[in-house]
Write a structure and sequence with these properties.
This protein has 131 residues and is α+β, with helices and mostly antiparallel strands. It is built from four helices and five strands; from the N terminus they run αββαββααβ.
């Protein structure tokens, strides 16, 4: 099975709301964002590391893009909150998601444009340490 299908079995969306951006990242500071809370379906799940989180995040960005675009007057971006022991937050501006959806940003470039808190939760490094 592909990574996205696997990730979809690991996480579930528990809540969606519109609120002020909860962090201090310049592009979204003080702006309205869509906040999507995500939980692991099994807290003990071992395969829900950084790569799985990013795969699931991509599927959520993809799925929520049209909704965000339709509300672009009020929403400046999207925040995914992984509500677990090893959780964290990923934030992306609407323009970043738009470019990624249009194919002008690769997946790797997408993550460079996002905000991660804490960064180490989402660091996708190969076991050898090299890229």
């Amino acid at each position: 099975p592909n990574d996205t299908a696997v990730a979809a079995d690991l996480f579930q969306v528990t809540r969606e709301e519109t609120a002020a951006f909860p962090g201090d990242w310049e592009p979204l500071r003080g702006k309205s964002v869509k906040i999507i809370s995500v939980q692991k379906i099994q807290e003990s799940e071992k395969n829900s590391g950084a790569q799985a989180k990013l795969e699931f995040a991509k599927s959520l960005l993809d799925k929520n893009y049209l909704d965000l675009a339709a509300k672009s007057q009020e929403l400046s971006g999207v925040v995914l909150i992984f509500d677990s022991v090893d959780g964290g937050m990923i934030a992306a501006t609407l323009s970043t998601v738009r470019q990624w959806r249009a194919g002008t940003l690769s997946d790797a470039a997408l993550w460079h444009e996002c905000y991660f808190d804490p960064p180490e939760t989402f660091s996708v490094s190969s076991p050898s340490g090299g890229h």
